[in-house]
Predict the 3D structure of the following.
Amino acid sequence: MLKLTTKEITALSKTGTGIGIKRITVNQHLPAPLRAQHILLAKDKITSTTDGFHSVFTFDAEHVPATDNSNNIFHIPTFLDYLAEGDVVRFDVARRTLRTIYRLKANQNSLLVTERCNNFCLMCSQPPRDIDDSYLVKELLEAVPLMDRRTVEIGITGGEPTLLGDSLLELLWSLKNFLPETAVHMLSNGRRFADPAFAKAVSEVEHPDLMIGIPIYSDISNIHDYVVQADGAFDETIKGILNLKTLGVKVEVRVVIHKQTFERLPQLARFLARNLLFVDHVALMGLEMTGFTRTNIDELWIEPGDYQSQLVEAVETLARNRMRVSVYNHQLCLLDKRIWKYNVKSISDWKNEFMPECGPCTKKDDCGGFFSSAHFKYSSRIKPFQSTGAETKL
């Protein structure tokens, strides 16, 4: 698991104050007019002046010549060796805290826009906090222009992003203008889109590749409302999806599978096929063992092997109705072979791991792996695939 935040930074020179949203560069010879927007990452000995850079990071103090009188030179811990040209970070000079916002080489980049939410989901991986965190979007508006235009996809997550109102619209406009070829995937509970005016405002951004991932946890409203801990949420969510699709916005339905949702997966699939056939994707997802999931583990945990019949029926129902369906966050050895082709490696690389039992497995490249948080609890039925001549067997 990559560590994206740290306070383990040591000053090697006189330092200033302030918070910088900056791009990482390893180019010591970057032209002077560009340096203020960059932090120089000195992986080798510095051979030229560092004047003009916002800051200088080094893993080895000996890389900085004793004659270098520049300010803001810092020694950073070796676990940050993933930092590379084109990454974007938030650096608080005075507090010496660093947070990586964007990694050019990451398989996924997600932007946390708020920790506030109007749901209180039993398995929420980012428990909501009722705080003023409007600074997050302001900083992201600084970060977006620094991101590489070749970025394939950017995620927006929370909390509930739609609670930001106009600030969310501003962020979507920024992503459209600065990263016009980058897909945007936003996670939302969908309830705010029940307001036709807000749904219309999002559609009027006319982002060329925006998809909004919205959860539906059951075909029965009170089960969905119980999972999200909000009365009336099901009706608002369905209205929100209908409003978005009426306006041509792409929608993904997301279903987290656990003890409260697995039994009615087949019925939910039939509900989607009858009533929301026009959604763009359905993702059937395993639990992430963090946040409220740990608190509510007894209400949520079920062995993945124990819901395979329901999962297979749901997948086959959706596929038979020509709906695009994927299975996320699951281990291949636990999935019924009939749905292997729907399995996707969906976990972000910075928190994707394999457990000790997986050591000899020959199918890691095809497996979804685990969230790092799965060390808390995972299936006791993990069984690695092993090669025996021409065949690979469990």
About this structure: The first helix runs from residue 135 to 143. The chain has two domains: 5-100, 110-323.
